[in-house]
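Reply to dn_fold:

You asked what the input looked like. This is it:
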Amino acid sequence: QVQLVESGGGLVQAGGSLRLSCAASGSISSIAAMGWYRQAPGKQRDLVATITSGGLTNYADSAKGRFTISRANAKNTVYLQMNSLKPEDTGVYYCAARRVQDSTWTLASNYWGQGTQVTVSS
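and this is what came back:
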């Protein structure tokens, strides 16, 4: 099993920045990649950014150029630096880990953190 604990959410004005952190513990060797999802009120949970164990990154179009995902392997921690935030970035941000046996990100099989609220005011 893997445990994920997020921190760093909050309230920020449009144009501001936030950095989210996610610390992983447990069976770290069972993780192939980590990422962040966002769930806005009344909407589905969407993938925002991912990073593999080798450091390859991928971003949703809405995050490109504004968000940066990174990892500190020694700390088993993944970060999401969010700049130039917009009101539409508002939602609960969930840290997720993809298992080594999964070739794609799957909501049903990911490990999940508890989520952290990000609110961007206009």
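Residues 35 and 112 are 10 Å apart (CA to CA).
Hope that clears it up.
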